[in-house]
């Protein structure tokens, strides 16, 4: 992998919630252009934008109707060209979201495909005959709720949609379709973008014959990914994509691979196989699943988080290190403490992301410790998944109160509220009413405040980012977990040549003791989120609540 990819720090921009330049309540491309200096100042050097293409926005743009057109609510193609140029002038790379597991049902391909069984596009999607009784071909549920099959009267067949019914799944076994996708990728690459984040890529290769999935307790349908995740031709198609497109340019590629284990994960990123540079794994996103799956009132166990992260650190040639994104709750609320120790825990968490081995990913707003929202009712939420889940909970007879608690904790809307720039109207995001309400804590938590304070979370992120960028051991050094059984700590060592860096992250809300495994060797403090941390490394270390420390050992 090229050095810029290994040294890169990625910042994810959720475009509609980042910055609104024309005051219509929706973030846009020119809004990003206005903030490029802010991003450069933070120290990140790769920007990943969520989809900005033509879309009816059933799933906030992950339902694309035209891969080569910009959704007018975000701006124009000229704006995009200008953004790419200005970003490059500032040394920032641009990564686009490539959503090719499915399109929107308003995409021209689907509109044609659904018309008949024998036109040029008939085979571009996954069509199957009904069962004899007219019901859906299998019991697969969609990720967002309901069946994964939708009946189409024109063809008298069902089509598959792993996500919303307005997101029909593409048929990757169709060569002409694959070529059309590769053409689109070339189109964007010729425009100068620097890489792709590939949405739901582990789902693109479907089985020839679908079969029913086992149905577990509290579920009406079988799992949406059953027999689908990491399907039979997945690696063949990604290698083909590599040969036809990726190998011809200097691009960074990040595959989103839900329901993938480490062995399968390594296949995507093993450089000799020529597929992708890195993947987003999901094991650690499952640590707080409950009896109804993702939406739960269960808290994570540190031992599970540590185990899952460690597995991927140990087994993959290269990782992408993330704790949150636009599909997840806020990291400080989920893995830290968003009240008393908000600042300290947000800082400790970034040390974990920055100093493990792999490319670090920051989600917008995490650099100022933005928190989950206390939605007072389901009507304040915007995500279709939240609505569908709430409805499912009502059907299951769960109390309204508990249903709201579970959806509140996990709704994707937690991470989607507008970026909090300052304490003025709508947090400085827009003069108009935003598409989703601003978190009510914006007067305390905002960029302006953090920029004025030398001890802020933002300033700490800058320090951690600079260390990550300038330190060969942190970039490419080997990784090894230590203190694997500690009840409060994730600690590990990075090593290169005869140099070591010891990283200790405390998840305790009290003061705790830690025995230095490198007794008597001495060491020098590289970073801590507490001023009380001593510059030398002692044999016994006392950590403050949510303290993170890094030492050079020896
Ligand atoms: O997500 C794919 C995915 O499987 C999950 O992260 C998903 O959001 C989760 O299971 C929901 O609980 C990607 C995008 O990141 C997401 O925003 C899209 O909604 C989805 O694909 C469909 O394109
Ligand atoms: Ca706008």
Structure write-up:
The protein is 28% helix and 16% strand. The chain is α/β, with parallel strands linked by helices and 554 residues long. It folds into 2 domains: 387 residues, Glycosidases (TIM Barrel, Alpha-Beta Barrel), CATH 3.20.20.80; 77 residues, Immunoglobulin-like. An 8-stranded parallel beta sheet has the order 11-10-9-5-2-1-13-12. The chain has a 5-stranded antiparallel beta sheet with strand order 14-15-16-20-18. The two termini are 30 Å apart. The site of calcium ion has 6 residues, from loops. Belongs to the glycosyl hydrolase 13 family. Keywords: Glycosidase, Hydrolase. One of its GO terms (biological process) is oligosaccharide catabolic process.
Write the layout of secondary structure elements.
Blueprint (H helix, E strand, L loop, with lengths): L2 H5 L2 E4 L15 H6 L1 H7 L3 E4 L3 E2 L11 E5 L6 H13 L3 E6 L9 H6 L13 E2 L20 E4 L4 E4 L14 H16 L4 E4 L35 H11 L7 E5 L5 H8 L8 E3 L21 H14 L4 E2 L9 H5 L6 H14 L3 E5 L20 H12 L4 H11 L36 H6 L4 H14 L1 H5 L1 E5 L6 E8 L2 E8 L5 E4 L7 E6 L11 E4 L4 E6 L1
Parallel strand pairs: 1-2, 1-13, 2-5, 5-9, 9-10, 10-11, 12-13
Antiparallel strand pairs: 3-4, 6-8, 7-8, 14-15, 15-16, 16-20, 17-19, 18-20
The protein binds 1-O-alpha-D-glucopyranosyl-D-fructose and calcium ion.
Features:
554 residues, alpha/beta, Immunoglobulin-like, eight-stranded parallel β-sheet, five-stranded antiparallel β-sheet, 16% strand, globular, binds 1-O-alpha-D-glucopyranosyl-D-fructose, binds calcium ion
